[in-house]
TrEMBL record, chain A:
PANTHER family: GNTR-FAMILY TRANSCRIPTIONAL REGULATOR (PTHR38445:SF10), HTH-TYPE TRANSCRIPTIONAL REPRESSOR YTRA (PTHR38445). This is GntR family transcriptional regulator. Residues 9-77 form the HTH gntR-type domain. Pfam families: GntR. Keywords: DNA-binding, Transcription, Transcription regulation.
From TrEMBL, chain B:
Keywords: ATP-binding, Nucleotide-binding. Gene3D superfamilies: P-loop containing nucleotide triphosphate hydrolases (3.40.50.300). The keyword Transferase does not apply. Signal peptide: none annotated. SUPFAM superfamilies: P-loop containing nucleoside triphosphate hydrolases (SSF52540). Pfam families: ABC_tran. Residues 5-230 form the ABC transporter domain. GO terms for molecular function: ATP binding; ATP hydrolysis activity. It comes from Salsuginibacillus halophilus. This is ABC-2 type transport system ATP-binding protein. InterPro entries: AAA+_ATPase, ABC_transporter-like_ATP-bd, P-loop_NTPase.
Automatic annotation (TrEMBL), chain C:
The chain crosses the membrane at residues 21-42, 62-81, 93-118, 141-166, 173-192, 212-236. It comes from Salsuginibacillus halophilus. The keyword Transmembrane helix applies. This is Uncharacterized protein. Keywords: Membrane, Transmembrane, Transmembrane helix. It comes from the Bacteria.
Amino acid sequence: MDASFDDQKPIFIQIKEKIEDQIVNGYLQEDEKIPSTTQMVDFYKVNHLTISKGMNLLADEGVIYKKRGVGMFVAEGAQRKVKQQRKASFADDYVRPMMQEAEKLGLSEDEVNHLIQQVRRGDRG
Amino acid sequence: MNTKVDVRDVSLNYRKMNVIDQVSFTMETGKTYGLIGRNGAGKTTLLSLLTGFRLPDAGDIQVNGEPLFENRMMMPKVNLIYPADYADESDNAKSYFETAEKYRPHFDRAYAEELAEKFGFPVKKPINKLSTGMQSAFNATLGLAARTEVTLFDEVYNGMDAPTREAFYQEFVREQERHPRIMVLSTHLVSEMDYLFDHVFMLHNQKLIADAPTDELQSRAFTVTGGQALVDEVTKQMAVIHEEELGGMKRAVIYDANNDVKQKEAAEAGLGIGAVTLQDLFIYLTGGGNGHE
Amino acid sequence: MSDGFSAVKSITSDLFKIQMKWTLSFFSVVLVVFLLLDASWFFTRQAPDVTLAAFIFEPSKIYMLVIGIVPWFAYFTYFISHGVTRKDYFAGTAISAALLAVGLMGLTFAVSGLIHMIEPITGYAPIGTEQSLALISSHPAAQLTGTMIVLFLYYLAGWIVAIGFYRFHISGGFASIAIVIILLSITDAIWAQGNVIVIDWFRHIQPLIDTAALPFTVLVGLSLILAGAALTALWLSTRRTPVKMG
């Protein structure tokens, strides 16, 4: 769990993504209470209004839900939902920037594919 | 109960010098206001006006529609915490707690004792025998535990070590959640506290030069980075508040209420766009000798 | 603090308690000095010719002047910082000063009474030939009243000096000292029967007024007018004074 932010995206979006990460990684399970705004303010050193904005976004998407007077909880099927969304935006978020960089460097598609396979093999072992 | 503070066209002169120049703003319960300005910008003077320690020469300050100055109902609800000179104070924290308990309607004695333990200052030792950092922690305790509707902290961190400051910030956030009030934090050390501010008042050369929600204020500013010639070309029609160059590259900081359009323009021209921290914005807007015109 | 909370009452009682503590120390010291000076009685068996009440009067005037100065610097900022209005602090100071004058004189008369009561055991009986206020020696109650009013005026004088320095800096401080010299000279001229301690030449114009011929109530009335004027000046200097954040 990283408490740092980059300046390319609004902070509340990055807060949202950090909570999503915890859900995707399984640190936060379904129907589990997510950390309170105050806890997140302490941890991330981000204003509570910004945290709320990120949480509201997740609530609107149905990833988390609110129990009055108790806090926010992970919704049923949240992990699946987040994964689906991330798959849908995978091309935009990761592949496109990669291809742009490859183009800048003059790498062919085959060379890129080769590199991908190399990284995968490296990971295995 | 909600409290609203109205400051209208307030000016103050001191020995023929203008110390506060036609300042107007409002504050409401539940919000934390960051009052930022360089040394001598008038932060402490403004806070002393907000506490009724002084009467402005012009303009007025009202709390819930009533004049604040010498108002018997309002004065107990306003609390200014400042780095007081305790050199001659041989009383201890305990006796201060007793007085506060008597004169402050919502003072929580148990919470004050709890904070004393947390911040690590002895309550039975004369206050002039405490270190500067401990005196500041004691001040912070009085401010948090008095739970006044309007709580003003003037450079409260004075001499506190990093762990105590951190503990104070944590308690501050919790208190604002448990007992929402109008909180003001005056500081010139912005980077450490900026996340506490919901709203920013920037004071410069006796005037209020910014009065906006923190995120909105920050979003007015952005950086553009790219080749020097291109940056110059694109930013020709923009309000540049700062620029720096490094090996043919140039970074310019734009401050513009119409930032969405300008940002898009810059991005479409192929420049890199970045955010600006509140600290940097503060430096750019107030920096440079006597400051920005 | 409940709805029935009265800041004036609280301030009055807080200031009174603090200053009465100082007053008890002052009184004890004076009493010890008085008894030591009278120690000769043990050897000569000759009754001393000054009562405690007469003996303590002059030191008390100086004492009241001094503690009129001190609390302003020690407590004004302190209580205003705790949310008390200038108005309430002012009223609390004035009332506690009056109570202090009553307290000090009450203490004096109580101890005098005690000395008198145990006379059969000790054989010690200071007899006053010299009264604190010669004019009204005829009646103890009148003497008590007169003494308290004078002490109250001396306290106000100290308070004027405090405000002078607090509000109007060094120059105002010295101006306030001049005002106080005049105020106290008038006070002494009214009460002290040619025994003016502050400005000596007041003694020479005194026969023109001849306060000795005036009835007691007129003297009290004159003193109260003087106190009223002093309090008005004090309030005008206080109501908008900036609080020093020291």
